[in-house]
Write a structure and sequence with these properties.
Elements lengths: L6 E4 L9 H17 L2 E4 L11 H14 L22 H14 L2 E4 L3 H13 L15 H9 L5 E4 L5 E6 L3 E6 L7 E3 L7 H11 L4 E5 L6 H11 L8 E5 L2 E2 L15 H7 L3 H9 L14 H7 L10 E2 L2 H13 L3 H14 L9 H14 L9 H5 L11 H7 L4 H12 L7 H15 L4 H13 L7 H8 L1 H9 L2
Parallel strand pairs: 1-2, 8-9, 10-11
Antiparallel strand pairs: 3-4, 4-7, 5-6
Helix pairs in contact: 1-10, 6-7, 9-11, 12-13, 13-19, 16-17, 16-18, 16-20, 17-19
The structure holds one RNA strand of 76 nucleotides.
RNA sequence: GGCCCCGUCGUCUAGCGGCCUAGGACUCUGGCUUCUCAAGCCAGCUACGAGGGUUCGAAUCCCUUCGGGGCUACCA
């Protein structure tokens, strides 16, 4: 790699919303670039335009931004090696493909998909390793004439020489692949469009990528990339360093994918997971700082992250642990940040107006501190605070049955009696007055007495702290709700 | 089938030949606290897949085996 600055690339193929596995890779790419003071390059691999859509590309860009994984080269920010969408670099790839043909590294292959399929089947049946048999490595003039007469359009195939490819994977050590199991592969489709196999290698070289950290599924395609480097005339010491990251798997032991569990980052965003929690949790999937630290900020992650500390074994995604970390991160929020994160959730649930009124903002700001430590996800906020923004509460039938039947009338009327003349409307005063009347005077169990009031005020026997809630709600509405029982 | 990767508590992991009667975190269980729910605090359960070696000594090194996963496309 000579003396080039470290450059790490994240190059997803957005055939859907970015998922947990993608993001873990992006996070490691980003963290390593930041750790080394290198460049983080973001490239879109959209050579398969039948599967990649503009919406998915836009969503990928948005997701990375939302997570705070900023890139130095790539879409929107540009850079010296753009464009960073492979679909905009088509002539570059075809030039290289032509050159490979001229050099004899690649050749035109006229075999049709059906023929290929049939021969693969035959190989399997005879116990051979399936793969391209090299038929078109040399074509007779008459065959060529016949194919052309038939109107067949050739693909361009890379010639894999005899021998093997050995490279050092930073995570897995030395890897060797015998070329008997790396068949000649297609670089360019019959319609002239490039494949990943061509584009990925060409771009990594042209964009001066020094480190390729990517999913383990690409491990066995590495020899093909190296083959392209060779055809491009890149010296071995200038190949990027490879590090194949272990999978993030779903709970059912399959590779985490769109069909397996909640994997789309968009879903986590809607649920109210904080970017920092997602990154913190994902960082722990396949990597650890080496000590017992687990709660890390993004900054700490960049300081501590090295490829050497990445595990080689796959990790299972554990929602419970993510939730735990998310709760920690929410608790660590300043009131102002907490407010900013909460607002969209409150507005989406129509608990507050859009734009929020001054009065509502004031209530939200008072109420957030009392729910902050009991949240797992931001999406729980509207449900917890809704009772503060309605005229009449919806009484939960189960709660009513449990706490508002029987002698509740007495509790409620006593509460009204002592709260009405209360001189200072503060949670301390409310607490004191109710405790004196209900617990000391009437001799009731706190749990029973306060639960009755809680249900009357909030609608449920589960709520934020009662006295604080009553203070925020205001005397008028508290008394009205009590009177309504 | 072939090639490749991987294998420490239920889960994520620490461990890189003696500090390990295996540590931490999440989960779970019990308790404390308590106006509910949380949070917090304390305690507890639970692991080196198996079998051979190497060595004075192995979770750590080697081999075999079993198990899991990936690749085997004109997807990436």
């Amino acid at each position: 790699m000579g003396n080039r600055p470290i450059k790490v690339r994240f190059a997803p193929s957005p055939t859907g919303d970015l998922h947990v596995g993608n993001i873990r890779t992006a996070l490691f790419d980003w963290a390593y670039a930041r750790h080394t003071g290198g460049i983080f390059l973001f490239r879109i691999e959209d050579t398969d335009r039948s599967r990649v859509t503009d919406e998915y590309i836009a969503a990928a860009i948005d997701t990375l931004k939302w997570l705070g994984l900023s890139w130095d080269e790539g879409p929107e920010v540009g850079g010296p090696h753009g464009p960073y969408l492979q679909s905009q670099r088509l002539d570059i790839y075809s030039e290289w493909a032509d050159r490979f043909i001229k050099q004899g590294d690649a050749y035109y292959c006229y075999c049709s998909p059906d023929e290929l399929e049939a021969r693969r089947e035959a190989q399997k049946e005879s116990g051979q390793a399936p793969g391209y048999d090299g038929k078109c490595r040399s074509i007779s003039d008459e065959d060529l004439a016949r194919y052309r007469a038939q109107g067949r359009e050739p693909v361009i195939r890379m010639r894999m020489p005899e021998g093997s490819t050995t490279f050092t994977d930073v995570i897995r050590g030395e890897c060797t692949f015998d070329h008997n199991f790396v068949p000649d592969f297609v670089l360019v489709r019959a319609d002239g469009s490039p494949l990943y196999t061509l584009a990925v290698a060409v771009d990594d070289v042209l964009m001066e990528v020094t480190h390729v950290l990517r999913g383990e599924d690409l491990l066995s395609s590495t020899p093909r990339q190296i083959r392209v480097y060779q055809a491009m005339g890149v010296k071995a010491e200038d190949y990027p360093l490879f590090a194949h990251l272990p999978f993030v798997m779903g709970t059912d032991n399959a590779k985490l994918s769109k069909r397996n569990g909640e994997t789309s980052i968009a879903w986590y965003r809607e649920q109210g997971f904080l970017p920092e929690a997602i990154c913190n949790y994902l960082a722990l999937l396949g990597w650890s700082p080496g000590d017992d630290r687990e709660n890390l900020t993004l900054k700490e992650l960049t300081e501590l992250f090295t490829i050497e500390r990445v595990n080689s074994n796959p990790a299972r995604f554990d929602m419970k642990k993510l939730e735990n970390i998310n709760g920690d991160k929410i608790r660590a929020l300043t009131l102002d940040d907490f407010y900013q994160w909460s607002l969209p959730f409150l507005q989406k649930a129509k608990v507050v107006a859009t734009p929020i009124t001054n009065e509502q903002e004031s209530v939200v700001r008072q109420a957030l501190p009392i729910i902050q430590e009991r949240l797992i996800k931001l999406s729980e906020i509207p449900g917890m605070l809704a009772f503060l923004f309605t005229e009449k509460v919806d009484l939960d039938p189960d709660s009513v049955a449990k706490y508002l039947d029987g002698d509740a009338k007495g509790i409620i009327s006593k509460a009204i009696e002592v709260l009405t003349p209360l001189s200072t409307w503060s949670h301390e005063a409310i607490d004191g007055a109710l405790r004196a009347a209900l617990i000391e005077q009437m001799g009731l169990k706190p749990r029973l007495a306060f639960s009755a009031i809680r249900v009357a005020i909030t609608g449920s026997h589960i709520s934020p702290p009662l006295f604080e809630s009553m203070e925020i709600l205001g005397r008028e509405r508290v008394l009205a709700r009590l009177a309504a029982i």
